[in-house]
Amino acid sequence: MEPILRAEKLTKRFGELTANREIDIEIHAGEIHAIAGENGAGKSTLMKMLYGVYQPTAGNLYIDGEKMERWNPTIAREKGIGMVFQDFRLVPAFTVLENVFLSLHSAGWKINKKKLRDEINRISAEYRLSVDPDTEVWKLDLGQRQHVEILKILLDPQTRVMIFDEPTSVLAPHEVQAFLQMLSGFRNKGYGIFLITHKIDEILAVADRITILRQGEHVCTFERRDGFSQQQIISAMMGNVPVNFELERPECSEENEAAALQLSLSGVSIKDDHDQLILHDVSFEMHKAEILGIAGISGNGQRELAEAIYGARKLQSGILSANEEDISSTDIAHRIRLGMRMVTEDPIRDNVVPTFSILENMALVGLDPIYRHGDMDWQAMRSQLQTHSEVKTLRVPQAERIAGTLSGGNLQRMTFARAVISRPRLLIASYPSRGLDIATVHAVHKTLFRLKKQGVGTILISEDISELFTMCDRILVLSSHTAFGPYCVDACTPNEIGKIMLQGENAHE
Ligand SMILES: Nc1ncnc2c1ncn2[C@@H]1O[C@H](COP(=O)(O)OP(=O)(O)OP(=O)(O)O)[C@@H](O)[C@H]1O
Protein backbone atom coordinates (compact mmCIF):
# COMPACT_ATOMS: atom_id res chain seq x y z
CA MET A 1 0.00 0.00 0.00
CA GLU A 2 1.27 3.45 -0.95
CA PRO A 3 1.98 5.61 2.12
CA ILE A 4 0.10 8.92 2.32
CA LEU A 5 3.35 10.69 3.10
CA ARG A 6 6.90 9.49 2.63
CA ALA A 7 10.10 11.34 3.39
CA GLU A 8 13.38 10.31 1.86
CA LYS A 9 16.78 11.23 3.30
CA LEU A 10 15.50 14.35 5.05
CA THR A 11 18.29 16.47 6.47
CA LYS A 12 18.00 19.68 8.47
CA ARG A 13 20.93 21.81 9.51
CA PHE A 14 20.82 24.88 11.73
CA GLY A 15 24.22 26.48 11.10
CA GLU A 16 26.80 23.98 12.34
CA LEU A 17 24.22 21.76 14.00
CA THR A 18 22.63 18.87 12.13
CA ALA A 19 19.24 18.35 13.77
CA ASN A 20 18.18 15.60 11.31
CA ARG A 21 20.48 13.57 9.08
CA GLU A 22 19.14 11.62 6.07
CA ILE A 23 15.97 10.38 7.71
CA ASP A 24 13.52 8.10 5.90
CA ILE A 25 10.05 7.94 7.37
CA GLU A 26 6.49 7.30 6.20
CA ILE A 27 2.90 7.18 7.35
CA HIS A 28 0.02 5.08 6.04
CA ALA A 29 -3.70 5.53 6.45
CA GLY A 30 -5.01 3.89 9.64
CA GLU A 31 -1.79 3.68 11.66
CA ILE A 32 -0.26 5.30 14.71
CA HIS A 33 3.45 5.90 14.20
CA ALA A 34 5.21 6.95 17.41
CA ILE A 35 8.44 8.97 17.33
CA ALA A 36 10.72 8.61 20.34
CA GLY A 37 14.21 9.64 21.37
CA GLU A 38 16.10 11.59 23.99
CA ASN A 39 15.77 15.35 24.40
CA GLY A 40 17.29 17.11 21.41
CA ALA A 41 17.23 13.93 19.27
CA GLY A 42 15.43 15.83 16.49
CA LYS A 43 11.81 14.66 16.84
CA SER A 44 10.10 18.08 16.64
CA THR A 45 12.38 19.23 13.83
CA LEU A 46 11.46 16.19 11.75
CA MET A 47 7.74 16.70 12.30
CA LYS A 48 8.03 20.41 11.52
CA MET A 49 9.64 19.49 8.18
CA LEU A 50 6.81 17.07 7.43
CA TYR A 51 4.32 19.89 8.08
CA GLY A 52 6.37 22.42 6.09
CA VAL A 53 7.29 24.76 8.97
CA TYR A 54 10.97 24.05 8.28
CA GLN A 55 12.38 23.61 4.80
CA PRO A 56 14.66 20.57 4.59
CA THR A 57 18.33 21.28 3.89
CA ALA A 58 18.24 18.17 1.73
CA GLY A 59 15.90 15.28 0.97
CA ASN A 60 12.52 14.72 -0.68
CA LEU A 61 8.88 14.47 0.31
CA TYR A 62 6.28 12.41 -1.49
CA ILE A 63 2.50 12.57 -1.13
CA ASP A 64 0.65 9.52 -2.51
CA GLY A 65 3.88 8.69 -4.32
CA GLU A 66 4.16 12.09 -6.01
CA LYS A 67 7.29 14.12 -5.31
CA MET A 68 6.55 17.55 -3.82
CA GLU A 69 8.58 20.31 -5.50
CA ARG A 70 7.27 22.97 -3.07
CA TRP A 71 6.31 22.38 0.54
CA ASN A 72 4.94 24.66 3.25
CA PRO A 73 2.09 24.46 5.82
CA THR A 74 -0.51 25.73 3.33
CA ILE A 75 0.38 23.02 0.81
CA ALA A 76 0.67 20.47 3.62
CA ARG A 77 -2.91 21.24 4.68
CA GLU A 78 -4.15 21.06 1.10
CA LYS A 79 -2.56 17.63 0.90
CA GLY A 80 -4.24 16.58 4.15
CA ILE A 81 -1.48 16.99 6.75
CA GLY A 82 -2.43 18.68 10.06
CA MET A 83 -0.32 19.34 13.14
CA VAL A 84 -1.05 20.00 16.82
CA PHE A 85 1.98 21.86 18.17
CA GLN A 86 3.27 21.71 21.74
CA ASP A 87 2.50 25.41 22.09
CA PHE A 88 -1.01 25.91 20.81
CA ARG A 89 -1.81 28.31 17.94
CA LEU A 90 -5.01 29.89 19.29
CA VAL A 91 -6.26 33.45 19.79
CA PRO A 92 -7.15 33.60 23.50
CA ALA A 93 -9.66 36.46 23.16
CA PHE A 94 -11.64 34.64 20.45
CA THR A 95 -14.25 31.96 21.09
CA VAL A 96 -13.75 28.35 20.10
CA LEU A 97 -16.03 28.91 17.13
CA GLU A 98 -14.09 31.99 16.01
CA ASN A 99 -10.76 30.16 16.31
CA VAL A 100 -11.98 27.21 14.26
CA PHE A 101 -13.57 29.58 11.74
CA LEU A 102 -10.31 31.51 11.39
CA SER A 103 -8.33 28.35 10.82
CA LEU A 104 -10.69 26.91 8.21
CA HIS A 105 -11.03 30.27 6.52
CA SER A 106 -7.26 30.60 6.19
CA ALA A 107 -7.19 27.13 4.65
CA GLY A 108 -9.63 28.37 2.02
CA TRP A 109 -12.87 26.82 3.35
CA LYS A 110 -15.99 28.94 3.16
CA ILE A 111 -18.40 27.86 5.86
CA ASN A 112 -21.06 29.87 7.66
CA LYS A 113 -20.88 30.15 11.41
CA LYS A 114 -24.25 28.55 12.08
CA LYS A 115 -23.28 25.45 10.13
CA LEU A 116 -19.84 25.44 11.78
CA ARG A 117 -21.40 25.53 15.27
CA ASP A 118 -23.47 22.44 14.37
CA GLU A 119 -20.37 20.70 13.00
CA ILE A 120 -18.34 21.51 16.13
CA ASN A 121 -21.12 20.06 18.28
CA ARG A 122 -21.40 16.96 16.09
CA ILE A 123 -17.65 16.20 16.02
CA SER A 124 -17.30 17.01 19.72
CA ALA A 125 -20.00 14.47 20.53
CA GLU A 126 -18.50 11.85 18.20
CA TYR A 127 -15.00 12.02 19.73
CA ARG A 128 -16.02 13.18 23.23
CA LEU A 129 -14.25 16.53 22.92
CA SER A 130 -15.36 18.77 25.76
CA VAL A 131 -15.68 22.17 24.11
CA ASP A 132 -18.43 24.73 24.01
CA PRO A 133 -18.24 26.69 20.71
CA ASP A 134 -19.11 29.97 22.41
CA THR A 135 -16.52 29.98 25.20
CA GLU A 136 -13.50 32.27 24.83
CA VAL A 137 -10.28 30.28 24.60
CA TRP A 138 -8.59 32.07 27.51
CA LYS A 139 -11.15 30.50 29.82
CA LEU A 140 -10.22 26.95 28.78
CA ASP A 141 -7.70 24.71 30.51
CA LEU A 142 -4.86 23.17 28.50
CA GLY A 143 -6.69 19.92 27.83
CA GLN A 144 -9.66 21.82 26.40
CA ARG A 145 -7.40 24.02 24.28
CA GLN A 146 -5.89 20.89 22.84
CA HIS A 147 -9.41 19.78 21.92
CA VAL A 148 -9.88 23.04 20.00
CA GLU A 149 -6.66 22.36 18.06
CA ILE A 150 -7.88 18.86 17.25
CA LEU A 151 -11.25 20.26 16.14
CA LYS A 152 -9.47 22.59 13.72
CA ILE A 153 -7.85 19.60 12.07
CA LEU A 154 -10.88 17.31 12.14
CA LEU A 155 -13.16 19.92 10.64
CA ASP A 156 -10.86 20.37 7.67
CA PRO A 157 -12.29 17.83 5.23
CA GLN A 158 -8.90 17.32 3.56
CA THR A 159 -7.20 15.99 6.69
CA ARG A 160 -5.69 12.52 6.40
CA VAL A 161 -2.62 12.74 8.64
CA MET A 162 -2.40 14.28 12.11
CA ILE A 163 0.91 15.10 13.79
CA PHE A 164 0.93 15.40 17.59
CA ASP A 165 4.01 16.81 19.35
CA GLU A 166 4.04 15.55 22.96
CA PRO A 167 0.27 15.90 23.29
CA THR A 168 -0.05 14.27 26.69
CA SER A 169 2.45 16.59 28.40
CA VAL A 170 -0.36 19.14 28.87
CA LEU A 171 -2.92 16.60 30.05
CA ALA A 172 -3.86 15.54 33.56
CA PRO A 173 -3.24 11.83 34.20
CA HIS A 174 -6.96 11.03 34.12
CA GLU A 175 -7.23 12.70 30.68
CA VAL A 176 -4.43 10.66 29.12
CA GLN A 177 -6.41 7.45 28.84
CA ALA A 178 -9.28 9.23 27.09
CA PHE A 179 -6.81 10.93 24.75
CA LEU A 180 -5.19 7.63 23.75
CA GLN A 181 -8.63 6.14 23.13
CA MET A 182 -9.41 9.11 20.93
CA LEU A 183 -6.20 8.51 18.94
CA SER A 184 -7.20 4.87 18.44
CA GLY A 185 -10.59 6.13 17.26
CA PHE A 186 -8.86 8.36 14.67
CA ARG A 187 -6.78 5.44 13.50
CA ASN A 188 -9.89 3.27 13.13
CA LYS A 189 -11.44 5.99 11.00
CA GLY A 190 -8.43 5.77 8.66
CA TYR A 191 -6.33 8.74 9.76
CA GLY A 192 -2.55 8.34 9.87
CA ILE A 193 -1.17 9.59 13.19
CA PHE A 194 2.36 10.68 14.10
CA LEU A 195 2.78 10.77 17.88
CA ILE A 196 5.87 12.25 19.56
CA THR A 197 6.04 11.08 23.15
CA HIS A 198 8.52 10.37 25.95
CA LYS A 199 6.06 8.06 27.69
CA ILE A 200 6.88 4.47 26.86
CA ASP A 201 3.61 3.16 28.30
CA GLU A 202 1.74 5.34 25.78
CA ILE A 203 3.80 3.85 22.95
CA LEU A 204 3.16 0.35 24.20
CA ALA A 205 -0.57 1.12 24.48
CA VAL A 206 -1.29 2.53 21.01
CA ALA A 207 1.62 2.57 18.55
CA ASP A 208 1.57 0.36 15.46
CA ARG A 209 5.10 1.47 14.59
CA ILE A 210 7.78 3.31 16.48
CA THR A 211 10.72 5.16 15.03
CA ILE A 212 13.63 5.97 17.33
CA LEU A 213 15.91 8.94 16.70
CA ARG A 214 19.23 9.57 18.40
CA GLN A 215 21.36 12.69 17.88
CA GLY A 216 19.49 13.54 14.70
CA GLU A 217 19.80 10.09 13.16
CA HIS A 218 17.32 7.30 12.54
CA VAL A 219 18.26 4.40 14.83
CA CYS A 220 15.53 1.87 14.06
CA THR A 221 11.83 1.35 13.46
CA PHE A 222 9.93 -1.32 15.38
CA GLU A 223 6.67 -2.78 14.09
CA ARG A 224 3.91 -3.92 16.44
CA ARG A 225 3.38 -7.10 14.44
CA ASP A 226 7.02 -8.09 15.18
CA GLY A 227 6.63 -7.07 18.85
CA PHE A 228 8.67 -4.57 20.85
CA SER A 229 9.39 -4.15 24.53
CA GLN A 230 10.06 -1.26 26.89
CA GLN A 231 13.67 -2.42 27.25
CA GLN A 232 14.23 -2.47 23.48
CA ILE A 233 12.87 1.05 23.15
CA ILE A 234 15.03 2.41 25.99
CA SER A 235 18.16 0.71 24.64
CA ALA A 236 17.56 2.08 21.15
CA MET A 237 16.99 5.60 22.50
CA MET A 238 20.03 5.59 24.74
CA GLY A 239 22.46 3.63 22.63
CA ASN A 240 22.80 0.48 24.73
CA VAL A 241 24.44 2.25 27.66
CA PRO A 242 23.77 0.41 30.92
CA VAL A 243 20.85 2.03 32.72
CA ASN A 244 19.84 1.77 36.31
CA PHE A 245 16.76 3.74 37.20
CA GLU A 246 16.65 2.70 40.85
CA LEU A 247 16.38 5.36 43.53
CA GLU A 248 16.89 5.24 47.25
CA ARG A 249 15.08 7.71 49.47
CA PRO A 250 17.76 9.50 51.53
CA GLU A 251 17.82 10.76 55.10
CA CYS A 252 19.12 14.20 55.96
CA SER A 253 21.74 14.46 58.71
CA GLU A 254 20.77 16.36 61.89
CA GLU A 255 23.43 18.94 61.18
CA ASN A 256 22.17 19.66 57.66
CA GLU A 257 18.59 19.65 58.86
CA ALA A 258 19.35 22.22 61.55
CA ALA A 259 20.63 24.66 58.91
CA ALA A 260 17.66 24.14 56.57
CA LEU A 261 14.92 26.64 55.77
CA GLN A 262 11.52 25.88 57.22
CA LEU A 263 8.43 27.30 55.64
CA SER A 264 4.92 27.71 56.98
CA LEU A 265 1.69 29.17 55.63
CA SER A 266 -1.21 30.18 57.79
CA GLY A 267 -4.63 31.18 56.43
CA VAL A 268 -3.18 32.19 53.05
CA SER A 269 -5.52 33.34 50.27
CA ILE A 270 -4.30 34.12 46.75
CA LYS A 271 -5.88 35.60 43.61
CA ASP A 272 -5.27 34.50 40.03
CA ASP A 273 -4.43 36.72 37.02
CA HIS A 274 -8.11 37.52 36.54
CA ASP A 275 -8.43 38.87 40.07
CA GLN A 276 -10.45 35.85 41.22
CA LEU A 277 -9.68 34.09 44.48
CA ILE A 278 -8.01 30.85 43.39
CA LEU A 279 -6.86 29.59 46.78
CA HIS A 280 -8.59 30.26 50.05
CA ASP A 281 -7.34 29.78 53.60
CA VAL A 282 -4.35 27.55 52.91
CA SER A 283 -2.35 26.47 55.96
CA PHE A 284 0.50 23.99 56.20
CA GLU A 285 3.94 23.65 57.73
CA MET A 286 6.78 22.21 55.73
CA HIS A 287 9.34 20.17 57.61
CA LYS A 288 12.99 21.05 57.19
CA ALA A 289 14.63 19.33 54.19
CA GLU A 290 11.31 17.85 53.24
CA ILE A 291 10.18 17.07 49.71
CA LEU A 292 6.59 18.25 49.81
CA GLY A 293 4.48 17.33 46.82
CA ILE A 294 1.75 19.59 45.50
CA ALA A 295 -0.78 17.45 43.69
CA GLY A 296 -3.79 18.64 41.75
CA ILE A 297 -5.18 18.97 38.27
CA SER A 298 -3.28 21.84 36.68
CA GLY A 299 -5.07 25.17 37.00
CA ASN A 300 -6.06 24.56 40.62
CA GLY A 301 -3.77 27.24 41.99
CA GLN A 302 -0.38 25.50 41.69
CA ARG A 303 1.27 28.33 39.77
CA GLU A 304 -0.26 31.00 41.99
CA LEU A 305 0.83 29.19 45.17
CA ALA A 306 4.39 28.76 43.86
CA GLU A 307 4.58 32.43 42.87
CA ALA A 308 3.18 33.58 46.20
CA ILE A 309 5.81 31.58 48.11
CA TYR A 310 8.57 32.89 45.85
CA GLY A 311 7.35 36.48 46.22
CA ALA A 312 6.19 36.97 42.64
CA ARG A 313 2.51 37.27 43.64
CA LYS A 314 1.08 38.99 46.66
CA LEU A 315 -0.94 37.29 49.35
CA GLN A 316 -4.51 38.54 49.71
CA SER A 317 -4.47 37.48 53.34
CA GLY A 318 -2.65 35.18 55.73
CA ILE A 319 0.95 34.78 56.85
CA LEU A 320 3.93 33.19 55.15
CA SER A 321 6.94 32.56 57.35
CA ALA A 322 10.41 31.17 56.86
CA ASN A 323 12.25 29.95 59.96
CA GLU A 324 9.57 31.73 62.01
CA GLU A 325 10.21 35.13 60.37
CA ASP A 326 7.07 36.66 58.86
CA ILE A 327 8.03 37.23 55.20
CA SER A 328 4.48 37.82 53.89
CA SER A 329 5.16 41.30 52.57
CA THR A 330 8.79 40.89 51.47
CA ASP A 331 9.80 40.91 47.80
CA ILE A 332 11.44 38.33 45.53
CA ALA A 333 14.92 39.72 46.25
CA HIS A 334 14.45 38.96 49.95
CA ARG A 335 13.22 35.43 49.25
CA ILE A 336 16.19 34.81 46.95
CA ARG A 337 18.50 36.01 49.73
CA LEU A 338 16.81 33.52 52.04
CA GLY A 339 17.75 30.81 49.54
CA MET A 340 14.48 30.25 47.66
CA ARG A 341 14.84 29.22 44.01
CA MET A 342 12.18 28.46 41.48
CA VAL A 343 11.92 26.25 38.40
CA THR A 344 8.88 27.67 36.66
CA GLU A 345 6.28 26.04 34.41
CA ASP A 346 7.22 28.18 31.44
CA PRO A 347 10.89 29.25 31.52
CA ILE A 348 10.78 31.32 28.30
CA ARG A 349 7.86 33.35 29.67
CA ASP A 350 9.22 33.66 33.19
CA ASN A 351 12.97 33.72 33.56
CA VAL A 352 15.03 32.78 30.52
CA VAL A 353 16.33 35.31 27.98
CA PRO A 354 15.83 33.46 24.67
CA THR A 355 18.47 35.46 22.76
CA PHE A 356 21.15 34.79 25.40
CA SER A 357 23.39 31.75 25.39
CA ILE A 358 23.13 29.09 28.07
CA LEU A 359 26.24 30.57 29.71
CA GLU A 360 24.77 34.09 29.71
CA ASN A 361 21.51 32.82 31.18
CA MET A 362 23.48 30.95 33.83
CA ALA A 363 25.42 34.12 34.59
CA LEU A 364 22.17 36.01 35.27
CA VAL A 365 21.28 33.60 38.06
CA GLY A 366 23.25 30.62 39.18
CA LEU A 367 26.93 31.25 38.52
CA ASP A 368 29.05 33.55 40.66
CA PRO A 369 30.20 36.55 38.59
CA ILE A 370 33.93 36.60 37.81
CA TYR A 371 35.38 39.86 36.48
CA ARG A 372 38.62 40.65 34.67
CA HIS A 373 39.65 44.27 34.08
CA GLY A 374 36.10 45.36 34.95
CA ASP A 375 34.38 43.05 32.41
CA MET A 376 32.79 39.67 32.88
CA ASP A 377 35.48 37.01 32.37
CA TRP A 378 33.52 34.63 30.13
CA GLN A 379 36.36 32.14 29.89
CA ALA A 380 36.45 31.82 33.66
CA MET A 381 32.62 31.70 33.81
CA ARG A 382 32.64 28.84 31.31
CA SER A 383 35.17 26.97 33.42
CA GLN A 384 33.10 27.62 36.52
CA LEU A 385 30.01 26.17 34.80
CA GLN A 386 31.91 22.97 33.98
CA THR A 387 32.80 22.44 37.65
CA HIS A 388 29.14 21.82 38.47
CA SER A 389 28.34 18.14 38.23
CA GLU A 390 24.69 18.86 37.26
CA VAL A 391 25.83 20.15 33.87
CA LYS A 392 27.07 16.66 33.13
CA THR A 393 24.46 14.54 34.91
CA LEU A 394 21.58 16.53 33.39
CA ARG A 395 23.39 16.67 30.03
CA VAL A 396 22.98 20.41 29.58
CA PRO A 397 23.97 21.32 26.00
CA GLN A 398 27.10 23.33 25.21
CA ALA A 399 27.39 26.68 26.98
CA GLU A 400 27.43 28.69 23.71
CA ARG A 401 24.05 27.40 22.50
CA ILE A 402 21.34 30.11 22.31
CA ALA A 403 18.53 29.38 24.78
CA GLY A 404 15.73 30.20 22.33
CA THR A 405 16.94 27.55 19.87
CA LEU A 406 17.09 24.71 22.38
CA SER A 407 14.64 21.82 22.20
CA GLY A 408 11.93 21.91 24.89
CA GLY A 409 13.65 19.24 26.96
CA ASN A 410 17.10 20.82 26.68
CA LEU A 411 15.68 24.12 27.88
CA GLN A 412 14.13 22.33 30.86
CA ARG A 413 17.50 20.67 31.59
CA MET A 414 19.18 24.08 31.56
CA THR A 415 16.67 25.78 33.88
CA PHE A 416 16.67 22.93 36.37
CA ALA A 417 20.49 22.79 36.41
CA ARG A 418 20.61 26.56 36.88
CA ALA A 419 18.34 26.41 39.92
CA VAL A 420 20.46 23.66 41.48
CA ILE A 421 23.74 25.44 40.77
CA SER A 422 22.50 28.60 42.46
CA ARG A 423 22.78 27.03 45.93
CA PRO A 424 19.13 26.75 46.92
CA ARG A 425 17.97 26.25 50.49
CA LEU A 426 14.41 25.73 49.31
CA LEU A 427 13.53 24.76 45.75
CA ILE A 428 10.10 25.38 44.27
CA ALA A 429 9.96 23.09 41.26
CA SER A 430 6.93 23.27 38.95
CA TYR A 431 6.61 20.15 36.81
CA PRO A 432 10.43 19.76 36.65
CA SER A 433 10.26 16.52 34.68
CA ARG A 434 7.70 17.65 32.07
CA GLY A 435 9.01 17.06 28.55
CA LEU A 436 12.16 15.26 29.74
CA ASP A 437 13.32 11.92 28.43
CA ILE A 438 13.29 8.97 30.79
CA ALA A 439 17.01 9.13 31.67
CA THR A 440 16.89 12.84 32.42
CA VAL A 441 13.78 12.44 34.60
CA HIS A 442 15.81 9.98 36.62
CA ALA A 443 18.73 12.43 36.85
CA VAL A 444 16.34 15.15 38.10
CA HIS A 445 14.94 12.82 40.76
CA LYS A 446 18.42 11.80 41.87
CA THR A 447 19.40 15.45 42.14
CA LEU A 448 16.38 16.27 44.31
CA PHE A 449 17.30 13.41 46.65
CA ARG A 450 20.89 14.62 46.82
CA LEU A 451 19.67 18.11 47.71
CA LYS A 452 17.44 16.71 50.42
CA LYS A 453 20.41 14.93 51.94
CA GLN A 454 22.18 18.29 52.02
CA GLY A 455 19.26 19.92 53.84
CA VAL A 456 17.49 21.50 50.87
CA GLY A 457 13.70 21.28 50.95
CA THR A 458 11.69 21.02 47.74
CA ILE A 459 8.14 21.94 46.89
CA LEU A 460 7.49 19.56 44.01
CA ILE A 461 4.50 20.47 41.86
CA SER A 462 3.41 17.61 39.67
CA GLU A 463 0.31 15.97 38.27
CA ASP A 464 2.09 12.64 38.09
CA ILE A 465 0.97 10.77 41.17
CA SER A 466 3.56 8.02 40.83
CA GLU A 467 6.33 10.65 40.65
CA LEU A 468 4.95 12.28 43.81
CA PHE A 469 4.86 8.96 45.65
CA THR A 470 8.42 8.11 44.59
CA MET A 471 9.86 11.46 45.56
CA CYS A 472 7.85 13.07 48.35
CA ASP A 473 7.66 12.77 52.11
CA ARG A 474 4.17 14.28 52.17
CA ILE A 475 1.65 15.47 49.58
CA LEU A 476 -0.64 18.48 49.70
CA VAL A 477 -3.58 18.37 47.31
CA LEU A 478 -5.04 21.50 45.70
CA SER A 479 -8.65 21.15 44.74
CA SER A 480 -11.81 23.30 44.83
CA HIS A 481 -9.90 26.47 45.79
CA THR A 482 -8.37 24.97 48.87
CA ALA A 483 -5.57 22.72 50.08
CA PHE A 484 -6.02 19.27 51.60
CA GLY A 485 -3.36 17.57 53.70
CA PRO A 486 -0.39 17.31 53.67
CA TYR A 487 -0.74 13.54 53.67
CA CYS A 488 2.23 11.37 54.58
CA VAL A 489 3.00 9.11 51.58
CA ASP A 490 3.42 6.10 53.86
CA ALA A 491 -0.09 6.56 55.23
CA CYS A 492 -2.14 7.01 52.05
CA THR A 493 -2.49 5.50 48.61
CA PRO A 494 -2.18 7.00 45.11
CA ASN A 495 -5.87 6.20 44.66
CA GLU A 496 -6.83 8.30 47.68
CA ILE A 497 -4.74 11.24 46.46
CA GLY A 498 -6.22 10.89 42.95
CA LYS A 499 -9.72 10.95 44.41
CA ILE A 500 -9.04 14.12 46.40
CA MET A 501 -7.56 15.73 43.26
CA LEU A 502 -10.81 15.10 41.43
CA GLN A 503 -13.41 15.50 44.15
CA GLY A 504 -11.86 17.71 46.84
CA GLU A 505 -13.44 17.32 50.24
CA ASN A 506 -16.21 15.09 48.88
CA ALA A 507 -13.55 12.36 48.47
CA HIS A 508 -13.70 11.82 52.24
CA GLU A 509 -17.42 11.12 52.28
N1 LIG B 1 15.31 26.98 15.13
C1 LIG B 1 16.41 26.34 15.57
N2 LIG B 1 17.63 26.91 15.52
C2 LIG B 1 18.73 26.27 15.95
N3 LIG B 1 18.73 25.02 16.47
C3 LIG B 1 17.54 24.39 16.55
C4 LIG B 1 16.32 25.01 16.12
N4 LIG B 1 15.31 24.14 16.33
C5 LIG B 1 15.87 23.04 16.87
N5 LIG B 1 17.20 23.18 17.00
C6 LIG B 1 18.15 22.19 17.54
O1 LIG B 1 17.95 20.96 16.87
C7 LIG B 1 18.11 19.87 17.76
C8 LIG B 1 16.87 19.00 17.73
O2 LIG B 1 15.82 19.72 18.35
P1 LIG B 1 14.34 19.16 18.43
O3 LIG B 1 13.48 20.22 19.05
O4 LIG B 1 13.95 18.63 17.13
O5 LIG B 1 14.56 17.94 19.47
P2 LIG B 1 13.48 17.00 20.15
O6 LIG B 1 13.90 15.59 19.90
O7 LIG B 1 12.11 17.37 19.71
O8 LIG B 1 13.74 17.34 21.70
P3 LIG B 1 12.76 17.42 22.99
O9 LIG B 1 12.45 16.01 23.37
O10 LIG B 1 13.62 18.07 24.01
O11 LIG B 1 11.55 18.23 22.61
C9 LIG B 1 18.37 20.47 19.14
O12 LIG B 1 19.76 20.47 19.38
C10 LIG B 1 17.85 21.89 19.00
O13 LIG B 1 18.52 22.76 19.87
UniProtKB/TrEMBL annotation:
Q: Which UniProt keywords apply?
A: ATP-binding, Nucleotide-binding
Write out the GO MF terms.
ATP binding; ATP hydrolysis activity
SMART domains (alphabetical): AAA
Ranges for domain ABC transporter: 5-240, 263-505
Checking CDD domains in the record gives:
ABC_Carb_Monos_I, ABC_Carb_Monos_II
The answer to whether UniProt assigns keyword rRNA-binding to this entry is no
| UniProt superkingdom | Bacteria
* Membrane-spanning ranges: none
**By what name is this protein known?**
ABC transporter
Can you name the source organism? Vescimonas coprocola
